[in-house]
Write a structure and sequence with these properties.
With 136 residues, the protein is of the alpha/beta class. It has 4 helices and 5 strands; from the N terminus they run E-H-E-E-H-E-H-E-H. Bound molecules: flavin mononucleotide. This is Flavodoxin domain-containing protein.
Amino acid sequence: MVEIRYFSKSGNTKAIAQSIAAAVGAEAHDISTPLSGKADILFLGGAVYAFRIAGKLKKFIKTLSPEAVGKVVVFSTAGNPAGASQLIKKQLRKCGIVPAAEEFHCVGRLAEDEAVQKQAAQFARETIDRLDHDKR
Ligand SMILES: Cc1cc2nc3c(=O)[nH]c(=O)nc-3n(C[C@H](O)[C@H](O)[C@H](O)COP(=O)(O)O)c2cc1C
């Protein structure tokens, strides 16, 4: 089962979550919606605010356990082109979860651009294909 969760204050990360959702045929929910069961793949998104990820996203990550999530694939937006992915991955590792190497990030103000939306969708499809292939 593929799950998508994100934290987004102003909608940029949500826009990326929605293009990932459309690409993989799943629904994107913000982190107030708990996982509904074991997630084979969890796409997890967030952004940078004053050099940090949101406390609420940190709290959500603390609720995850390696038994409940197969692979966690991070996506993010930020003012800076590197996004928030490294910050999110660091928090996952702190909680004993090894994030997938694949990640998607973009500059927040470009998150609704058609080209970026297409890249996010392609990233999601390729990631699912790769992870499915690795399982075989
Ligand atoms: C209060 C605030 C603080 C921010 N601080 C940073 C920052 O330290 N570094 C950065 O790269 N971007 C920063 N940004 C830009 C956001 O990371 C960027 O706009 C992101 O796409 C917001 O995601 P969201 O729309 O999903 O909330 C900040 C934005 C806000 C509103």
